[in-house]
Amino acid sequence: MTDTTTRTYTGETETQTESTQQADEEERCPECGGRLVSDAEHAETVCEECGLVVEEDEIDRGPEWRAFDAAEKDEKSRVGAPTTKMMHDQGLSTNIGWQDKDAYGKALSSRQRQKMQRLRTWNERFRTRDSKERNLKQALGEIDRMASALGLPENVRETASVIYRRALEEDLLPGRSIEGVATASLYAAARQAGTPRSLDEISAVSRVDRMELTRTYRYIVRQLGLEVKPADPEHYVPRFVSGLDLSDETERMARELLDSARSEGVHSGKSPVGLAAAAVYAAALLTNEKVTQNEVSEVANISEVTIRNRYKELLEASDTATPA
């Protein structure tokens, strides 16, 4: 009996030793035998001694946010989607889907469909309980629609939603349309974020005309005390270069032309869109890239006459040699 027990114990010890040796071999570099470390920033497992990448494209199982202390970690940890100012209820309410199917994908019966329709109706009534929430829901939907059409990033939409909420709280909407204030909020947010759009571009996707947009924009900026700097022509250059499929050298040359023009005072009193389009056209000529004034005018949505006048002024203000 004692011999059997001893043999069993010895077998378990040998098995544990073999598993430990295998684990040590897995944690060692196959080339030099050095210790392996996990690089979470680059999702790789590398050797400390020789730098061999043993494993790459590892799965990051941590959260998408960072926390630097325990209090911040507790504050950021959550269940479900984060709150956002782009929804009138900040994304806290429940949204009942329109598909009449259960969790297994099977169609609901007629009685269950009627029940779900009644629940959707009451859910919408509870989500927008008063005129202020209905106003906010319509305006934020309009901001999201226009931002999608203009290709504006999410941070601009969030800022525009905050500006509209402030205008609504300070009672600036009476006498003005919801679409007008929403468009002005988006225009101001794009200017603040350094991704401006011209008034013509904003008016093309808006449901209000340009005159109402400019009037409402000035009123909102003045009443809310928004700090909106004059539009920089350089902010338009990357979009125009991308739309014309030009090189990085052309973009760099256009920025240099605008810098020279700023130092010479050419920017004063001129449209930033026209200056940016003229700089792109002049830079394309200087870098021997084929582009016509008509193509630039279509991308920038300005006239060819403006491009001709501005690009001559830019070349005169620059030390760069005039193209042939």
Would you write up a description of this structure?
The chain is mainly α. Among the domains are: 28-59, no CATH class; 131-224, Cyclin A, domain 1; 233-317, Cyclin-like (Cyclin A, domain 1, Orthogonal Bundle). Helices cover 57% and strands 4% of the residues. It has helices at residues 2-26, 70-76, 110-127, 131-150, 154-169, 178-192, 199-205, 210-224, 237-244, 248-264, 272-286, 293-300, 304-317, and strands at residues 36-39, 44-47, 53-56. A three-stranded antiparallel β-sheet has the order 1-2-3, with no helix packed on it. α10 packs across α11, α10 (248-264) crosses α13 and α11 (272-286) runs antiparallel to α12. The chain is flat and about 70 Å long. It starts with a helix and ends in a 7-residue tail after the last helix. Mean pLDDT is 81; it is low at 1-10 and 320-324.
- The CATH architecture of the domain at 131-224 can be named as Orthogonal Bundle
Treating each run of at least 4 consecutive H or I residues as one helix, how many helices? 13
**Rg, Cα atoms, Å:** 31 Å
Class of secondary structure makeup? mainly alpha
Compressed to H and E, one letter per element, the order equals: HEEEHHHHHHHHHHHH
- Strands ordered across the widest β-sheet: 1-2-3
Sheet having the most strands: 3 strands, antiparallel
Strand composition percent: under 5%
CATH top-level class of the domain at 131-224: Mainly Alpha
Form type: flat
Can you tell me the CATH topology of the domain at 131-224?
A: Cyclin A, domain 1
Distance between the termini: 104 Å
CATH homologous group name of the domain at 131-224: Cyclin-like
* Low-pLDDT regions: 1-10, 320-324
Q: Tell me how many strands there are.
A: 3
Mean pLDDT, as a whole number? 81
Helical fraction: 55-70%
